User: Fold Luciferase-like monooxygenase from Myroides albus.
Amino acid sequence: MKNIPYSFLDLAILGKNRTMTETLHSLLNTAQYADALKYNRFWLAEHHNMPHIASSATSVLIGYVASGTQNIRVGSGGIMLPNHPPLVIAEQFGTLESLYPGRIDLGLGRAPGTDQLTAMALRRNDTLSANFFPKQIDELRQFFSLDNSNAKVRAFPGEGAQVPLWILGSSTDSAYLAAELGLPYAFASHFAPNQIQLAASIYRKNFKASECLEDPYFMPCVNAILADSSEKAEYLATSFYRMFLGIIRNDREPMQPPIDTMNGLWSVQEEEYVYNMTSCSFIGKKEDLRPEVERFCQVLEVDEIMITTPIYDCNDRLHSMKLFSELFNG
Assistant:
């Protein structure tokens, strides 16, 4: 695994009794630690109308993180392109690339990152925009291209900016699109694991080389909660399980502190559903997880792996990140 880069996705999740300001300061501390641990990328996800997730202004946070780090690539995992005019995204990421050259990634998704009512508020009269996602990507690429120099509408900054585009997805539709466009592909297996093997296979079999990429490049995102003992890791993971339990019950709260046991908090059906949603998770101590991570990377022919680490306590989260990095450096 020493040849596989490892990266980090942060959702800027608020914990119980923590403010937005504290959460965003913690996010930067996490990014700086990831930078020191040689993580390859630090991505942020676009979400809206979620009171306990602070990443709605994704481009702003990317600039915040890039300004406070030195080497790590910073980007979106992702920007939900149907929520935005492609010109605006070209200008925003052209600006970011001008400020932090060679360090900005632009991951693109189709979903709204929210509920349908909020999607309508974001997209106004363009509620069918998700149906034109491939066309929007073409428009965005045109704004970045030097070939757009004679157009009447141009992106400044943006035109000529070398911002790598990624396709993000959680289904086979995105796999076909990433393959057709010849772009790197990030799969959201941290919450939608069911189609990961099929999507990875479709992407590789159908990949068409492009100016951006000669060979397919596949990066799944997984949950990783590591500790010095299996018991401690399972204890920390109860915050993570309660978060997903709130999602399926539509009863969302700030991330809760860990508890000794989940017994009595969920039904048998809820427990099964949460475990199914989170099946692409590595929870335990480093020595036990090494063969599991190796097998995951081999079976899926992983080119890079991204983790998210939903742990309540900041110090425990950083320690988990350190242990995960040691899997690839030890």
User: Anything to note?
Assistant: The domain at 6-225+280-327 is CATH 3.20.20.30 (TIM Barrel).
